[in-house]
Amino acid sequence: MKLKQTIETALAGLRSNRSRSALTILGIVIGITAIMLVMSLGAGAQELVLDQIQGLGTKTIVVIPGREPKGPSDFANVFLDSLKIRDVESLQSKSNVPFAADIMPVIFGTAQSSYGTKTYQTTVLGGGSAESNNIIADIFDIFPSQGSFFDTEDVKASADVAVIGNKVREELFDSVDNPIGQRIKIKGRNFKVIGVLSEKGQVSFFNFDEMVLVPYTSAQTHLFGRKYFDRIIISASDEDKIVQTVADIKDTLRENHSISNPDDDDFFIQTQVDLAARLSTITTSLTWFLIAMASIALFVGGIGIMNIMLVSVTERTREIGLRKAIGATDRDILTQFLLEAVFLTAIGGMIGILLGTGLSFIISLGLSAGLGLNWKFVFPFSGAALGIFVSSLVGLVFGGYPARQASKKSPIEALRYE
């Protein structure tokens, strides 16, 4: 029998049992849909995280106090007091770190901000520099839509001035056309609003829309009472100089802290490139783990196909005997039933791809609109190819046994079957 005729016979067999065929592929549809959902949403999450991290720029280097955490138990050691003003001054020296373009100490914490009777829980970030007026704009790529940033003189004087995020303006000044010059209270202290940020959203780990920016000297002296910093952010003069700059930072801080053994470092350094690579590895690993979990549905679907095909072979015993009686070979019967299984799973795979794509698109829109995230829909071409391949493979593997059972039937015994 020609392959074309075998294919036509297989398709005719599927059409004659539409309800059974639909139920047979349900497990495959669910499995492929789950894989498409996981891969699409995983890719969207990865892009979102990487976009936020890279919002600081590829030339940005972040120095963090404490030992670098190697596991969950180490995170208690992250927020330590190892970074002091002496370290900032040493890093600002060109003889120590020649390729550092900008250096900004950072201190942050949560505090309730109020204006009149309205209050809003904000993140207060103390930043700026006594050396550069535009350091916040240069590092974070943010700019006030009204007013301006505080300058070097404000930092030196520990001035009570603040730049507020767009969300903070909406919450505290919804009835005020221009908040510039107004005073807000942070931890009971009055701060004059000198700038309002344009809507920015998340940049790395900071949501500037919900943030109040003050000079780091003001945050240390008036708000948090700390003599140390939570971060020191350094911008390298060129991307090619990042490795050298990191090495210079380590040497400078180790000398300041009298550290001779790198294992005793009381600080660690992250670059945006390293952090992006790490998170990309984590999200990719997590995605593939979830794919493995979703593949269990494919295995269950494959067993269902094998059972249904075995039932189909039993019900069509007389058909098999008749076909063999008029000349069909064992190979023809084997090919026919194998093709039926492959067609079923391939159709299930395509339905799963379409369903998974549609659900992923809807969920991506919902996340973007509902949570205010820049969540992008990503169509996983590798997931679609994997879906078609795996579903067809399931048909071959789990349809092989029923097809072989059908091909081994004796034509005489099959024709006698009631």
From TrEMBL:
Domain ABC3 transporter permease C-terminal: 292-411
Membrane topology, from the record: Multi-pass membrane protein
Pfam families: FtsX (PF02687), MacB_PCD (PF12704)
Keyword Disulfide bond attributed: no
Keyword 4Fe-4S appears in the UniProt entry: no
Annotated localization: Cell membrane
Keywords assigned: Cell membrane, Membrane, Transmembrane, Transmembrane helix
InterPro entries reported for this sequence: ABC3_permease_C, MacB_PCD, Macrolide_Exporter_MacB
Cellular component terms (Gene Ontology): plasma membrane
Location of the MacB-like periplasmic core domain: 21-251
GO MF, any single term: transmembrane transporter activity
Membrane-spanning intervals of the chain: 21-43, 288-313, 341-365, 377-401
Protein family membership: Belongs to the ABC-4 integral membrane protein family.
Protein name: Multidrug ABC transporter substrate-binding protein
Source species taxonomy: Bacteria, Candidatus Tayloriibacteriota
